[in-house]
Amino acid sequence: MARTRTASRRATKARKPVKAKKPARAAKAKPIKTVKAVAKKPVTKKKKSFRYHTPLAKKLVVQKALRFKKVRHPEDGQGIEFRVPTSWKETWGSEDNALFYPPVAGIDGPTPITGRLFVRFRLEPVGDANDGAAFGLLLSHRTDDAQTVTELESGAFMLHFQSRHNSEGYHALDYYWFLAKPFPPRRIGLASFLFSGVAELFDGEKAPEAHVVAMLEKEIPKAIFDQERLPVHHEE
Question: Nearest Cα to 90, choosing from 64, 117, 55, 67?
Fold first, then answer.
């Protein structure tokens, strides 16, 4: 009996289905990192900026330290008095123009690089010397109808404008001031100021020598005319 039970147990064990083993999970393949090619930026050369340099900028860069001297033209006789920096030189231009200019080391005499101020004075005959005659005289010197005549605190009248042209191989910029005042009974005092220089040096607020023009803009309208001395006739 014992053998029969044992045999039956073995047969039962043998009949049990054998569980199939689960296949091993395949290892997930790691994604391969790809490096994106970065396009190199083209190397561009910086544009060189050219700027005019002049020793004059070192002379007048500090406006508070700027000192002035009174000058007049013509020196002998009736004329007009105004101020220029004490360092400026004076000589004669063409015709009867007085010429004022800032001296610069290494440059002999006035040049367009430093700028040149021409001053001329004359008495114009009129039928009746009054404000209307002075105003009309300045209108005749306009180069454009848009230019206006203004009255100054001194009682004189002023016409101010600028013009450009090419001269001696450079771009020239001319600033004009015409001042007129009645000299009764029949004459008008007319003073003309012309400041000329290289346009790239003087034109615009950021120009290297813009302070020179700004100084003239303040000083020239303050010019004072001599009062004509007329003989006094005493009645007997």
Answer: 117
List the domains of the chain with CATH numbers: 72-225 (3.40.1000.10)
Rounded to an integer, what distance in angstroms lies between the CA atom of residue 109 and that of residue 94?
14
Residues belonging to the chain: 236
DSSP conformation letters of 198-229? EHHHHSSTTSTTHHHHHHHHHHGGG-EEPPP-
Place of tokens 């950021």: 206
DSSP assigned state of 232: P
- As given in the structure block, the two tokens for residue 36 are 């994106």
The answer to whether 179 and 190 are in contact (CB under 8 A) is yes
Q: pLDDT digit string (tens) for 52-75?
A: 444 444 444 444 578 999 999 998
**Measured distance CA(196)–CA(166) in Å, rounded:** 12
How much is the pTM?
0.68
Nearest to 210 by CA among 195, 193, 192: 195
DSSP alpha helices (H): ranges in 49-110? 56-59
